[in-house]
Structure formats: structure tokens, C-alpha cells
Amino acid sequence: MTNPLLSPSSLPFALPDYATITADQVREAVETGMREQLQELEQIAADPAQATVENVVHAWERSGATLDRATAAFWVARAAHATPERDAVWTALSPQLAAHSDAILLHRGLYDRLRALAARAESGAVELDEQDSYWLQKRLTDYERGGIGLGETDQQRLRDLNSALATLSVEFEQVLTAGRNAAAVHVTDERQLAGLSTDEKATLRTAAQDRELDGWLVPIVNTSGQPLLDVLEDRGLREQIYRASVDRGLSGDHDTRDLLVRIARLRGERARLLGYPHHAAYSHEITCARTTGAVNDLLGRLAPGVVEIAEREAEVLAERLEAVEPGASLQPWDWQFLAAREAAESSFDTDRLKPYLEFERVLRDGVFAAATALYGITFHERPELVGYTDQTRVFEVREEDGSILGAVLIDPYTRPTKKGGAWMTSLVRQSQLTGDLPVVTNTCNVPPPAPGSPSLMTWSNVITLFHEFGHDVHGLLSDVRYPSRSGTAVPRDFVEFPSQVNEIWAWEPSLLAQYARHHETGEPLPAEWVEALVASRQETGYHTLELLKAMLLDQAWHQTPLEELPEDGAGVEAFETAALERAGVAFPLVPPRYRSAYFAHIFAGGYSAGYYSYLWSEVMDADTVAWFRDNGSMSRAAGERFRRQLLGRGGSIEAMDTYRRFRGADPDVSHLLVRLGLGADAGARA
Questions:
Q1: Which of 171, 173, 468, 618 is catalytic?
Q2: Are 273 and 161 in contact (CB under 8 A)?
Q3: Is 546 a known active-site residue?
Q4: What is the pTM of this model?
Q5: Is residue 677 part of a domain?
Q6: 279 in helix, strand or coil?
Q7: Residue 311: CB partners within 8 Å, gap ≥ 6?
Q8: Is residue 96 domain-shared with residue 80, that is, in the same domain?
Q9: Which of 80, 107, 331, 507 shows the greatest Cβ crowding within 10 Å of its Cβ?
Q10: How many Å apart are CA 144 and CA 502, to the nearest integer?
């Protein structure tokens, strides 16, 4: 059979031919693609002609087409539906891809070719525009950070480190996924499920049947907090679920501790080899933050105020628990349940929204409708096209004038073979140079509906869907020359900013009236509910503290000197405890959003030393929300400016320059402080 990944796809939008692609074909295409790209880059290095934009930059950007096509198609398919065959292929390919990257970044001829172009540009012999200059700057930085200045022995050690880290990252992810599935809590007494709706119990029964179990099965999601802890009345079951969640990865066949320590230590060694004191310094150098000091300053100054808010919330919840169970002490597994009850009485209980949040209506009349109102783009399902899972749906995206902009693929439902969390990827990156239109994905973990029932979402699910679609919009509206600088190719602490901004439209009253309608009657949310929901948007101390704890753990693993890191997995829990105490956030009633043993973002993803990015990006997000509020909110005029001045620029120029051109100034942190409940006058602390 001809391998469909070895040549450009003839399908609409250049979609991968998922109906026929096999794991072996992926392996063949990736290995072929690596050889092809090295040959193409070798021609650039050996070209005797004077260096120009065309024979260096353009030729470089056109290289590696087979490799890009194969890896983009395979990564999202495996993340959404891992199989033993796919896992085996990715395990084999990961160190090969690391070696391929090293072969490029340690190629002296290519580096010299880049320097020659830079010298000619500096002398005036070659004219570079803004996108060309930034491309060249980024490539030279990649080489300087990638070990080009090391001696031969150190370069070989760097190759070994990169190969080992690639292998360990894949292994961590595989063990973590298996451990999450194994941690599911089996319930045989229906009385323990008091508080759940009939549909929710039916979903849990289906989960049990899928594993050939009687009764009900409560799956564990990727975060420490578990959704059902909001509603389960049985305190014993809440504790069982909580412990199943936070004890993941700490023992047995799915113990991840040795793996994560090896990853942290190897990253520390690599940083030292490259001339940095620790991995965080290496990582932060190319972010908007620039320095570890800037990251620590933001996190450290917020910590005291956030802990204080969480402590006040705990006092209220402890009183509530005492009223219903005298003598009981507040525990972490009580918090979500009691907070939901408190919200139902004193603010707004989002659990009441679920009958009004049917997935299809939220998607079409909420997420898509917001993008149409802001950017004029429309979405048209193409049911004849095949996505990366059998539940994936393909939507053609059109401009206001009817011309085709690109496509988005949406795979909403959780499954045991899917990674935890939610994510966006680019199957095809927009480029003026190649003429490619953007094709992006949106993969979530919404609980699937029980047979014959509608797919009803929690409010958290809704926010996640809007968030991930913010990444999609960033990719879809990209308007840049080079595919490597397209869409979300921006610093880690900038990439979350557009997606966080997109969350605000979930709360827009006019949009809520469209998408939040009762799944049986079609009635919209009562006006007083809308008002209460919007008023309740301020973050809780619990939510902010769980995030802050995870951010601080990430920094601890990646700022601690190599000599002070644990030697093996046995030291992980003590390291965690000491790090949180040192940061002043050890408050035990609020667990980190991710404990180290299941922190996939930093040990199996691209967020090492960068999980703080969500908070750093939120500074820009809150400032931009204020701008939208002052400029017509969800209007075409405001959306058009955000599209052209910010989203469309992708990573083609410096990220903060993009922001300043859009906003006219640096972001104002006071908007975030108000959102966090710290007050604008807390600026001295943050």
C-alpha cells in the first residue's frame, strides 16, 4: 500500500488520510522525512552563492515538509487515542527526533550560513523586512542555545541528554495515563452516589460496563480536584476519590517518581552544560518574562494575599461543616462540596446550569457564534471528512465574504485512551510563503453522554471549550509569511493569553441567551441567573492557590541546583513539602492543581519551568478584557483590531511588541489583581 504521508494529501484542506494511515506508515514517513530534511538543509549549507533571503530563509522554511506532515498528523491522533502500536512507534521515534534536532542545531555549516546572511544584512547588501529579521534572530538564538559553541565531547553529551529526556518524557506520559485509568474508583452501593443525577449515574454505569464491572465507576481526571466532589453527598466516597486522585504515581506499577526525578536531574545537567545555573534560567531566557527573577517576583508577591483569601474561605466552610456535622474538621475532600453549597446560597451555584449547557448548542450558538460576531468567520460541518478519531468532526471555516479560511477538527469526549486535559494543535500551519491554509484541532475531555441522553456540560467544561477555541482562533487567523512563525508559535508565557481572552465570551450575557438553553424546553437561563453568574466571575482563593502551588512546584523542580535535587523517587514527597513551605503556600486544605507525580505539563509536555505562563498571560488577558469592555465588547470593530493587530501576527515579530501595538501600552496588572480579589491597590505586592 502506498504510504499517504509520503506526499502532500489530496484531501480537502490537505487533511491526513486518517481512514488508511497505519502506525508503521507513520514510522516510515517520519524516518523518511528526517532524511529528506537533512538533505535539504545540507544543500543550504553547501550553497556556494551569497546568502540571501530566498536561498536561506525561504529554502529553510520549505524543508522538512514530509516530516512536518507526518508528525503533526500522528501526535494528535496518538494523544486522543493511544494504542499499543502507536505508543511503540512514538517510543521509538522520540529519541530519533531528538537526535534529528541536534543534527540540525549542531551543524556548523548551517550556523555559518545564518551568520553570513546576518552579516550581509548588517552591511546593507541584503534587505530584511521585519518578519525576515525576526526569523533570522530566532534561528541564531536557537543555535546559540542549542550547543553550537560547545566542544565535541560536550556536544556528544548534549546529544545523549536530549535523547534520554525524549525517551523519559514519553515513558512518563504512558505510565501516567495508565495510572489515571487504574485510579478510577469502583462503587457498588448506589446509596453512595447521592447527589448525582440519573444521567450522571448512567454515565458512571456505562464506564463500569466498559471495564466489565458491576455497579458504577468514577473516572479520575488529570487535575487534583475531581468534578464529582462538588456534588457527592457521601463524605467517605469523597475522601476515597480525593485520595485516589492525589496519591496517583506514588506507588505500585504506575509510580512515576523515579522518572520525574531523572527528568529533572537530566534537565539540570543539560542547563549546566549549556552555561546556565539551572533549567529554569535556560527556559525563561526566551519568554516574555526573560528572567527567573521576574517569574519569582510575580509568584512570590501574589502568594501572601492568595493564601489569606483561601484561609478566609476555609473559615466559612469549616463553620458550614460544623453546622451539619458537629465536631468534624474540614478536610480537602470537603472543600469542593461545601463551597458549592455555599455558592448556591450566597452567590451562584454553577451546578444549576448543567441542564442548560447541551454540548451542540454551546458549540454552535456559543463558541462558534462568538467567533462570528468578533471576526466575521463562519463554520460549516463537513461530515464526509474523516478526523483523527471516530468522534472527531471536521468544520470548514469561511471568511465573511464566503472565501475559505481553513478548517477546525473537534474531538470533545473523554475516553480511557485519551490524554488528560484539553489541547489544540495545528495539522497544517498557515503560510503566505507556501500558500497553506490553517487546519487546527480542538481536543477536550467532556464526559460522554449516556446512551439516549444529551451531552450536558459543566460550567468548567464550557470554559475549557472556549479556552481551547481561543488557541484555535489564534491558529486560524494567523496571517504570516513563514509556517514556523504561524499562529501559536509564540513564547510559552504569551501563548495562553489569546485563549484566556476567549474565555470571557462564555460570560457575555447576549451570548448566554443564545447558547444556555434548557435541553428539554429550550427556555433560556433566567435573567437573574445570568446576572448572578456574571457577578460570580471573580476567582476564588481556592482556584488561584491550587494554580499557584503547581506553578511554584514547577519552579522548585527546575530552579533547584542539581546537587540539591532528590537522588531518586523516594525523595519526591519531601521535596514537594519543603518547596511549598519555603514559598509560604503550604496551606494543606488546598492541594496543588497538579502534584509532581502527575504533572504532565512539566514532565511530559512543553511547560517545564513554564507553568507560570497561565498567570503571566492572565495579566495581558485581564488588561485586554478591560480594553474590549471599553471598545464595544463583542463587536466586529473590536474583534477586527484584535485579529489584525495581535492574533494575525502569530510569532512573526517579538510577542510583547505585538501586544504594545495592539494595546498602545504595556499591560496594566491592576485588572488582574481585581479579578483575583486582591484589589487594584495591591500593586505594591504584585
A1: 468
A2: yes
A3: no
A4: 0.93
A5: no
A6: helix
A7: 541, 587
A8: yes
A9: 80
A10: 36
